[in-house]
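Interim report, section 4.2 (structural modelling).
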Amino acid sequence: MRIMDVLLPRTLDEALEMKAAAPAAMPIAGGTDVMVELNFDRRRPATILDVSRLPELRTWRKEDGAFFLGAGVTYARIVNDLTMFPALMQASRTVGSPQIRNRGTVGGNLGTASPAGDALPVLAAYDAEVVLARAGGVTRALPWHQFMVGPKKTVIAPDELILGARWKIARGPGSFSKVGTRNAMVIAVASLCLLFDEGGRTVRVALGSVGPTILRAPDAEQFLARVLHDAGAWDNPRVPVPPAAIEEFAGRVAQAGRPIDDVRGTAAYRRHACTVLAQRALTWALSDRKLKETR
Amino acid sequence: MSTKVAERTRGGVGESVRRVDGVPKVKGQFLYGSDLWAEEMLWGYTLRSPHPHARIVSIDISRALSSTGVHAVLVASDVPGRKTYGLEIPDQPVLAIDRVRYQGEAVAVLAANDLELARRAAERITVAYEVLPAVADMEQALRSDAPNVHDFGNVLRHIRIARGDYNTPADVWVEGYYETGMQDQAMLGPESGLAIPAEDGGIDLYVATQWLHVDRDQIAPCLDLPPDKVRLHLAGIGGAFGAREDLSMHLHACLLALRTRKPVKMVYSREESFYGHVHRHPARIWMRHGATRGGMLTSVYARIVIDGGAYASSSTAVIANASTFAAGPYEVPNALVEGTAVYTNNPPCGAMRGFGAVQACVAHEAQMDKLARALRLDPVELRVKNAVSTGSVLPTGQIIRGSAPVREVIRRCAAIELPPAPSERDPLTYPGGAGNVSRGERLRRGVGFAVGYKNIAYSGGFDDSAECRVKLFSGPGGVIAEVHSAAAEVGQGVHTLLVQIAREELGIDTVVLHPADTSVGSAGSSSASRQTMMSGGAVQMACRAVRDVLFERARRAGLDRELAPDIPVAIRDGQIFAGARRVGALVEFLDEPIEQTRVYHHRKTTPLDRDGQGDPHVTFAFAAQRAVVEVDEDLGLVRVVQIAAAQDVGHALNPQSVFGQIEGGTAQGLGFALMEEIQLKDGRIRNPSFTDYLIPTILDMPPVVSVLIEEPEPGVPYGAKGAGEPSAIVSTAAILAALRDATGRELNRVPVRPDDLIGLAPPVQSSGPPPAPNVPYPEPVPKALGIL
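Predicted structure of the assembly:
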């Protein structure tokens, strides 16, 4: 009795052809999500497509003011090498244990599309698009929010694979924070990424684990951009931002969340945590801007 | 003949000897139960109940039986002997009979060529259930309108300990209500074993367990085999902490192996493991303490209810422990303790490190802090003032006979230097750790103190003896001693210790361990901090018996003069010495090996009487801890900064192992204080995985600064007390106290959640202690009724 086929493509083209021939095949890279699903008997795919050997997915590159991160890049490599993206590094550092970070990939976060995926709020704050490919050299790129449309739900077509994520490189401070009930190796109860885009004069905030999917806080973002504009803080980072405005911003961030009670935490706590994380992240970013200015 | 203890040989008693199993475990070469393999073996799998309470209308196994690769499917009617088993009371069906009483109860087992086939075939077993109303709450279980979990009712055991008048007038009264959650042992190796049918019709079971012989005694009647046809062999154990006291896959693998005539292996997944073993009892505890203005305890009232879940397991002993330790290690002339273990349709609870004393300690230490506040006394001094010592009378009337250096334990712990406030910090060291949530905002430091104690060995009149066989023989590389003991090495280091004792007693370096199995007598359980005393004592006795034979041979060889009774004889470096004179090499007297078997018994104890009076415990070990915590007051996240620990160990036979036990027990207590809880809803486990059942990581564990208080226990081997449990008892209470100190909040439930620490969730409330059930005797109800 045959229990499962495992396909082992060596190149991207080969993988895409296999996927076209067997659209039900489940892609696996690091296996840190898929193997859990198999072990818990939640999924029994007839075919598994191992994409961990594809060199095309294990790369990153700058592309004309944008950055492309291959779906097969592990969190360990991001933590070690991608110093130009501190928030992504911070998010990657919060993923699991060293062993998990050695295996787990950003492509896995995208493919699983869990609202608790640690890299996802960062990609959302980057306004990243997800690059998909199918056999015959056909690729398409979707904004992150059009790609992930619900809890563990994406619009990827059965014959497509995730190539990676791409975003415009923005200048400005920012950070990623994750709250869990243990000091490491924990699934987010709430997470937040805040980024300044000095060029675009915007601040972007994305939330994880407080809704069916990753959420942005557009109302809070616009409010803050206005506050910084009115205070003249875009041009002069040393202009103080009133504490009341920071508090107001944090409250508006929390309003963007749509948390629920579950085994990991209560909705009330999640909402509260969003407020605190927003307040802290903004305070840190404002102080980093000042610091940069004085240097 | 007077013999003095042998001269110090390398690796003897008192040294931090490297573990005998250390290197293979670190290198990944150690064979655990889950690594067992046999030619042509099958894989067993268990079908479990999805319902907390239901009647089984019908079971159809035909589709499963005809599935590819399936060799057998068994249900209750296939159990050849007794249909139920149990550690204390045989109330648990081997496979469910007509009714399931908890979610996860075993209904059917099957064997197939591999695990995946077995899992798929199990889905083809059709069980029709009629769902029944479930008792999902321990206080609900006590109400008269509650459904009965067992036909005789929901009270498993009720203990009443009464001494003096608990209403005696006092200057100050403090009251409190406390709850503790259901903790899992979370041993890293799940349940595993391999059953091999033997040609004599019997069975050999290789299994990771805490007590081979009590397993055998439960297995044999169910298989309808004489005990000598059920041979158990200890498989490599990946942690136990009480989870391996009850049977899990043992009987199922044996039944399948006997039916198929093939070896059958069973290994639980992590999820199944949560359903496949008992847990720490959730408890609800009401307490009222009275004291004089000067701070002397006058009275303690305690009402304790613990949730035993669907089957008895060791709940009857756990409630006895929780009740006898309810007042803490303090002198109190008047006490009333009422403890009840109830049946519910929750997962069964039983043994876990600390065994009832953990829950009691959470409550009595919170009460001592409340009392100190009410009296404006230093909490440490209040504890010193009331601490028991040798000669103290406990609420049970038991007089502490052994060493009880409680005041020294408390003072030495309090004297450990507090951690300095760090100047520059790695963000990883803030509460929230790797989550990058803090740069030091709203940090509050708190300090908490707790004292507790634990009985060593089994209590209440039970004679849990330990046997050991020692063989001394001349081997290729010199004289070898072989130690044969059935003691389970659960990671605590007993195997290393047995070797150390044999070296010490026989004065030779080369000691080997015979594999632990049932071809030697029972060693008793690796539980209750007892193996150092019990199996340690048995090895010591057997070695001394071997030595007596050896000296007798030397005497017969014409060395009477040297071995005159007044000359001290000793062995060192493989030589026998009479005084300073060498009388010959050991090997000269070992043409025939010497083999001696001895059984160690602890002193006799008695059960509790109707008023909870008696002499129930063999002896006690005490511990104190001081916890320093930091709380992020905005996020309710915690970092424990330091644990200062002092423990009464009698005599540290392997100091490194003792420190390891203190640190490991502290980690488990820390987990219980901050994160570890099996969350239940309507009798169902919501988090049966290590994704959502969190245990501490290295970033959660602080440095543990330990001091050992060595006041030898009279009348036990080397004066040593077991060291496995006391730290696990006090660390939860100490951390809880530190969190209260940091936040100023009541925090009367563990584990403490972020919501509790920032005031999003109120303290747990109670309308008062439930009335005591009408059980006028201390025996377990089903036993007293003669039902089981």
